[in-house]
Structure formats: structure tokens, C-alpha cells
Fold:
Amino acid sequence: MRTQHIGRRTFLRGAGACLALPVLDCMASGKKTTPPPARLGVVYFPFGVSLPLQEDKQDWHWFPKGEGKDFQFNKSLKPLEPHRDHLTVLGGLSHPEAEKIDGHDSADTFLTGWNILTNKLRNVQSMDQVVAEHYAGQTRYDSLIMSTDGGVGEPTRSSTLSFNKHGRPIPAVNQPRRIYERLFGAGDPDTAKNRRRLKSSAHLLDHVLEDANSVRRKLGNHDQQKLDEYMDSVRQVEKNVEQSQAWIDIAKPTLTDEERERLKLDSDHQIPEQYIRTMYELIHLAFQTDSTRVATYQIASMGDATTLGGKFPQLLGFGKHLHGLAHAWNKEDGVEPLGKWDRFLATEFSHFLTRMRNTSAAPESSDSLLDYTTFLYGSSNSTTHTNRNYPLVLAGGKKLGFKHGQYLKFTRDTPFSNIFATQLQQIGLKNTRFGDSTGVVSELV
Structure:
């Protein structure tokens, strides 16, 4: 019997219930199909890395030996060796505006490149949200924003990497179970009731927008600008309502028992290995199910030593909280503990890359999910208070046109935002200029 082709978003229905089908070979069309969508991921860690000056400690230097294709990982990044051909180590880059501010104030700038201290603590839209706008409405969630500490933190001590088009921080989620329920939970079982609630909300917004236009004509220029910003926020709410209406009758992806077991949903910051790996696993599943195409994860914030992520090195047996560990970057007894923290982070990132490489990008495809994902991993400090020479790894995206297997060193003439411009171009955005970017990085494509 000839197998009939069925769509990727086909569901079994009956008695008011629906069940998502797993990925099947017959979901792949015999006709020429469009390539899988591009995805963007970002992982950030604060306070810099081990960059010892002592000759006998160079094995713990974060940046590799050599340059170009001829490079060797030191101990800090050695766990990434299996993925050598799928990544590029970047050295010498920074945001010129961020170089002017204190090292502990630079996390807010990682995806924006903006000097918030000279702009009344106001930021600009982050690069990930530019991509989220590009894909708006095509997935259940425009972006997945996560951090160990959650929320938004405070200016210069942000606990989120993502900022909307008005430069306002977007709250990050830090509870694995909450993220899981958002991606895979059943939601309101009363679909009809949920639909009525959403329809009512949209009707109310129509009235609000109409009344706001009437009020706006009576205001001065400054108040009109403030009202416009507020109405942009209202329109975003309306968009979320419309998106909820569009997805309400589509079942959320189902997981196997093995996948649920791997998630360890009760992980918390007291078990760093389990917690961080679970957060990576949630990103992987979100990409795999096309629940979103943009994800960011801030492993720790630049707040004081009491922050959740700041305690990770201490819990791992490296002796100090993250802030203290980073301050000892060049002390005789501090190089190796910080290097071991760097290696721990690289190990978890390596596990994630393995998961992405072992996942097919589409039915009957030999390409991996990583081949269609451009992933940025790094920090906005080289050492504790230095906002130059960011430690960065760009991974994935071979089918997006990225060239890897190299260590690239840049001069101060190349702003970090050129990496963003390159990622935006390869993802497929028409306008690839971002912030102070001067062009794309030709060595990467």
C-alpha cells in the first residue's frame, strides 16, 4: 500500500481531544521542499575567563594556541574538541561603547552594544529580538528567554539578555518546570472557554486603541511620544492575543517517557550540572519542535555574590563564588579554579552541541538541527573588569553558509556587532546592519 503524504502539523482528533503525531517519514514531501528554518541561540556567562600571564599556567588560558585552522584548544575549551569543525573561536572583539563602562555593567550590553550609562540607563533592542520580530507569528513563541536568576534584575545588573524595541528588559524565566509547562503543558482544557476569553480580550483592545487615537490628538508632542510607546506595548498584547487564537486549536508537542526523564524538571540551582543541562535541553526541545526559533540563556548575572548563578562554582567545589573566583584570574592559586569553571561551562555547552548534531533538521534529512542553528556562546568580559577581547564561540549554521574549524583574531577596528550582522544576514534578514556594525565577517561565510 502506498503511503499517503501528511503534513507536519497533522493531529489525531476525536471526542474533543487531539494528539500530536511524532515526526514520520511520510511527513516529508516527494516534491522539492523549502529548507528548514534558521534558528538563533545565545548563551552568556559573566565576569570573564582564565587568561593567566604566568608561563607555567598557559594550559588554562581560555583562548586556543595558534590561529586560523591551525589551532589547539587548551584545557578550558578542550571539551569542545569533538565539535571543532562546527565552531569558530573569536578573539579580540568587543562593543566599543561598552569599553567605556565598568566591567560589572557590561552584561546589559552583550546583545545591544549600547552604553546605557551615558543614555540615562536606557538600552536599545537586542539582536535576538530583531530575529524574533523576523519570525513573529510563525511559531508558538517568538522567543524563549531564560536565565538562572530570572526576571530582569536591575540596570547594569540585568538578569536577562533580551530587550524590546524600546530598550526595555524582557523578563527571563528560570524555573525549568515552568518553561516545560509553557512549551509542552496541556494548558486550559476548556478550549471553548479559552477561545471566548481571547475573543473578548481582542474586542476590548479594539475599543482601547480607538479611544487612545482620540486622546492622542489632544496631547502635546512629548506626551504623544510617550503615548505612542505605551500603545506599542498595547499592540504587542493584541498581537499575543491574536497569536494565542491562531495556536489554540493546535496541540502542543508530545514527549516520550525517555525525553521527560532526561529533562529533570525539578532541577534547581543547588545542582549546577543538572540545572544547566536541563536548561540546554529545553532549548533543544523548543528548537526541535519548532516552538520557537530564538532562545537566549544567561547562566549568571553580574549581581553580587548572593545571586543563584553566582554560587555555582562554590557548589561545584571550586572554592569561591563566581565573583570572587573571577577576581582571582591571575593569582597563583586562582588560575586553575577559574579554568576549571571555564571547562565546566564548555563541557555543558559541548553536551548541548552533541544533542543538536544528533537531531535531524527535518524528516528524511541528513542535516542536523545544529546545521540550521547559529549559536553564540560567550561573555562581555575577558577578565573581571575588562570589557575588551570578549571570549566568544560561534557554533553551528553550516547549512546557513557558516565556515568553521578556525580561531579568528580580530583587531580593534572590527566591532563585535559585525558578528551580529553576519548572523542576521545568514538567517535571511534583509536589513543586516546592527548598531555600530560596519559589515559582515567574510572569514565566517
Remarks:
- The domain at 11-180+256-444 is CATH 3.40.720.10 (Alkaline Phosphatase, subunit A).
- The radius of gyration is 23 Å.
